[in-house]
Amino acid sequence: MSDKLAKLVEELSTLSVLEAADLVKMLEEKWGVSAAAPVAMMAGGGVAAAAEPVEEKTEFDVVIKDAGAKKIDVIKVIRQLTSLGLGEAKTLAETAGGKVLTAVGKDAAADAKKKLEEAGAVIVVE
């Protein structure tokens, strides 16, 4: 995770429940979306979930399971895909279950998986 995202997560973690709810409302207005539908489906249980059509997943995580024999090549690809430095990329390559990319589109996840697998890594897209 980049430093910018890590700082954002830390700041968001300090919000109270009311502040987080206000943030959701502000983001809904700004982006013209609604977070109510997914929450209602989860809270409603089986009846509400059966009535709602299942939405296709739009965000994916690219997770490294094993760097394989060509770890240096995998590290190079990780650095190309992310803004990580050499040390961070090496640590990520050596960490089974480490997320190389988070919340990316289907095409970006497939492209990253292809590049990492060509370098010798075992990758899972979640």
Task: Supply database-style keywords.
alpha+beta, 7 helices, 2 domains, single chain, 59% helix, 126 residues
CATH class category name of the largest domain: Alpha Beta
Taking pLDDT < 50 over at least 5 consecutive residues as the criterion, the unreliable ranges are none
Strand order of the largest sheet: 2-1-3
Structural class: alpha+beta
Biggest sheet layout? 3 strands, antiparallel
* CATH-defined superfamily of the largest domain: Ribosomal protein L7/L12, C-terminal domain/Adaptor protein ClpS
End-to-end separation: 16 Å
User: On the 0-100 scale, what is the average pLDDT?
Assistant: 80
What CATH architecture of the largest domain would you give? 2-Layer Sandwich
The total number of structural domains is 2
Work out the strand percent: 5-15%
Total of DSSP H or I helical runs spanning 4+ residues: 7
Report the order of strands and helices: HHHHEHHEHE
The whole-angstrom Rg is 18 Å
Total number of β-strand segments?
3
Which shape, going by the Cα principal axes? globular
Binned, the helix content reads 55-70%
Write the CATH fold name of the largest domain. Ribosomal Protein L30, Chain: A
